[in-house]
Amino acid sequence: MVGRTLGALRAIVMCSLFAVPAQLLNAQVRPIPCETRICASAPCPQPPCPSDGRVERTGREVRVVLDGRVLSYEVTERWTNRGRSIGEADYVLPLPRGAAFEDLALMIDGEMVTGEIRGAGEARRIYEEIVRRQRDPALVEWMDHGVLRTRIFPIQPGETRTVSVRFRAVAEREGDALRIDVPAPRGQGTQRGGTTLAFEWPQGDGYGDAWSPTHELRPASVVERRRVARVEDATGTVTLLLPVRSAGAAMTVLTHAPRRDEGYVLITLAPPAQSGPATPRDITFVIDVSGSMSGDKLRQAKAAGRQLLNSLGRSDRFRLVAFSTDVNDFAEEWSVATPGNLRAAEAWLDGLAAVGGTNIGAALARGLEAATPAGRLGLLLFLTDGAPTVGEQNPARLAAYAAEHRDDRRVFTFGLGADVNASLLEQLALDGAGTAHFVRPQEDVERIVGVVAQRITRPVATDVRVRADGVTLTQVMPAGRIDLFAGQELTILAKYRGNADAARITVSGQGASAPVEWTTRADFPAQRTADAFVGRLWATQRVGWLSAERRKSGPSAEVDDELKALGERWGIPTMLTSYLVLEPGMVVDNAMSGGRGGARPAVMRGAMGAAVPPASPAPAPTAFEEARTAAAQRTARSMGEADKAMDATRTRRAANRLFVLRDSTWVDTRAEAAQRRLLRVRPYSDAYFALMDRTPDLREAFALGDNVEVRGRAVTIVLASDGVDRLSATDLTAVARDW
Which of 136, 511, 607, 672 has a CA that sits 20 to 30 A from residue 74's CA? Predict the structure, then answer.
């Protein structure tokens, strides 16, 4: 054993990578037997036994390194015993497809100790014998389906043990990108805390910037000629895409088709590293200097203006407009971005003072009066912290005026604080093919404006269009005009009808001097349950767009029905759908609002039937919050960004469903069918794995832990320790039919 004899070894680490016979699967999940000591007289102390449910994962760091096309994974986890008796960590670790296990190392007396391969039965026998002797073993067993079962014992009360698992995989190609998957562990104690992931790849070598469609990825940093990107506190499987550029752009296509005639596609396009000449720009920055902007807000706005000026190239022109009761500007005409003009513009910004009312109408008129000739890209950035109080104050007329005089300008709006007219700023950006940003008082205005300024630095193509030959794309998101800028990945989501092998995808637009076009080929299957985040990400953007349309034009049966359907189908809170989370043991009286008896207050009843006064309802979202959420949804490129937009902090998302934690069980928020079957399954049994094979949708839901309730069309599946171990072929067919 690592150069030591078994008899002299205090710690032993054993790994078994051989398939475990089905008849042994039941044995390996039974509680570890306790040794009973027979004494002649009292007192008679007994050796402590492992305890269940007391050991929790308190830290998880994953490092993934790309060399060539080989991914090296190192997973380091810390397990802490929160109980008052000796405990054991017992969990399963899914591996990426095609991964090869290398070794497991256990921290013992400050030293990471590795192990050796033994036969599955022998390894388990030795492990359980050492457990009885209260020594320090760890066991890794291959459970088929690319899953490792890991057991670590003993963990003393209050003690933290560290374990490191290493494996390798070949990076799979997804179009013009490499795909990296980091599955989440599941089992005892894995529900608490998330994963901190560091992905490292060579700088250059034709690679672009990694991004994630599932989680929010921090911008990459450079360490010793390698790039490193991070994901913090991630739950669920993390998926990364690394563009691989040749001479042109890198295009990736991911599909999700949960049912026939219901397909979704995510198309990403990374611009070429060398995009040719830049499109000259005409940029107007309109800044509110009314009295309410005094202090920190004006300071940040001035700093944002300086950032914008610093992003200009010699072919760009600019205008600065400040408004309060009246309107003033830096110059009457366009100013070329020469060093002298930029220094003078910064001095003009420094001299601005906050005083007076808010004349948005006059500010829009001044900002839109200078025309942008053909061949140049017109951009308007509009920043304010209030609603109009001087001049035209009707939001509809202000939006109509802007639409009439905007021409081809792209409009980006920034609303500071909850006093802004959120609907007006949202509509200006929607009509102007830009984005709306809503910033709370405590947030950094300078950073938000700086991000937009950096994003629009170098246009590669404007008025981008996407088409597919072989299938039909519908409800493309983002809706309206789309622009592509250097250094940014373009993300397009859509529904598709039909199916085709190697369908041709074409993305085209207007470049600086001529039209540009990129193509790739991809399969559009009739049914594909993988990459479920694609459908939900499309639905998130669609909800944001519909919400803005509803505020613009008012409620309508068509929009309202679609909003409700999307919220219920994909588990997305909208302005028309919410989720009610009750305390364990409480139910809602049937005669609640919307029932046959008319609108009545909901009455919660405790487990013993006593009436419990309902909690005070949460205040309705303000127009500011609704617009802020919708704007974030429309621009979300990952499920991490989408969840942040919806503030989904007290729930878990899996398999396009929302789950809430009720009495230690993750419960699906979808309504149960009136006629449904209940199936209880023991975690990690033959039935558990057979269900995941037959119904892949269950994999993400099962990854939430050992206690899960997930609801299908006519069957509810509950993971519980008292569930069945095996299911017949007939049973599996019935579950698939009712799912």
Answer: 136
CATH class of the domain defined by 281-455? alpha beta
Furthest CA-CA distance within the chain? 103
Q: What is the pLDDT of residue 273?
A: 66
pLDDT at 275: 55
Alpha helices in 609-718 (DSSP H): 623-635, 639-646, 686-694, 698-702
How many Å apart are CA 318 and CA 334, to the nearest integer?
Answer: 6
User: CA–CA separation, 402 vs 460, rounded Å?
Assistant: 26
Q: Are strands 116-117 and 611-612 parallel, antiparallel or unpaired?
A: unpaired
The pLDDT assigned to 671 comes to 75
Ranges of residues in the chain whose predicted pLDDT is under 70: 1-53, 103-119, 124, 127, 131-146, 188, 191-193, 246-247, 273-276, 578-621, 646-650
pLDDT at 138 (0 to 100): 65
CA-to-CA dists, residue 242 to 94, 184, 213, 254, 269, angstroms? 22, 20, 11, 14, 11
Q: What is the pLDDT of residues 371-422, one digit of tens each?
A: 888 889 999 999 999 888 999 989 889 998 998 998 889 999 999 888 888 8
Q: What is the pLDDT of residue 104?
A: 65
What is the rounded radius of gyration, in angstroms, for the C-alpha atoms of the chain? 30
**Residue 719: per-residue pLDDT:** 92
Q: HEC profile for 535-602?
A: HHHHHHHHHHHHHHHHHHHCCCHHHHHHHHHHHHHHCCCCCCCCCCCCCCCCEECCCCCCECCECCCC
Distance (Å, rounded) from C-alpha 220 to C-alpha 210?
Answer: 8
Q: 150: closest CA among 102, 100, 72, 88? A: 88
* C-alpha atoms less than 13 angstroms from C-alpha of 719 in its C-beta half-sphere: 27
Query: Which secondary structure element, helix H or strand E, spans residue 365, and what is its range?
Result: helix 360-368
Query: 250-269+461-531 and 281-455: same fold?
Result: no
Q: What is the pTM of this model?
A: 0.76
d(CA 140, CA 117): 10
Q: How far apart are CA 78 and CA 74, in angstroms?
A: 13
pLDDT reported for residue 144: 56
With 0-12 / 13-18 / 19 or more C-beta atoms within 10 angstroms meaning exposed / middle / buried, residue 493 is buried
Per-residue model confidence (pLDDT) at position 345 = 96
In sequence order, which residues have a C-beta less than 8 Å from that of residue 235 and are 6 or more positions away?
184, 194, 195, 652
Residue type at 268?
Answer: T
Q: What DSSP string describes 452-487?
A: HHHHTSSEEEEEEEEEEESSEEEEEES-S---EETT
Distance CA 704, CA 233 (A): 15
Per the structure block, which two tokens stand in for 349? 């910004």
Given CATH 1.10.10, say whether it is the number of domain 250-269+461-531.
no
Where are the chain's structural domains?
Answer: 11-35+47-243, 250-269+461-531, 281-455, 650-739
Q: How far apart are alpha carbons 602 and 619 in whole angstroms? A: 16
Could you give the count of Cα atoms lying within 13 Å of 110 in the half-sphere of its Cβ? 0
If you classify domain 11-35+47-243 with CATH, what class do you get? mainly beta
**Residues 337-348, buried b or exposed e (16+ Cβ, 10 A)?**
beeebbeebbeb
Q: Measured between alpha carbons, how far is 435 from 453 in angstroms, rounded to an integer?
A: 12
Helix (H, G, I), strand (E, B) or coil at 374: coil
Record the tokens describing residue 222, joined without a space.
């450079």
Q: Which tokens sit at 340?
A: 């002298």
- How many residues in total does the chain contain? 739
Q: Which residues pair with 195 in a beta bridge?
A: 234
Q: Is the Cβ–Cβ distance between 493 and 534 less than 8 Å?
A: yes
Q: What is the pLDDT of residues 127-169, one digit of tens each?
A: 677 766 655 566 666 665 567 777 787 888 888 888 888 888 8
Is the CB of residue 492 less than 8 Å from the CB of residue 500?
A: no
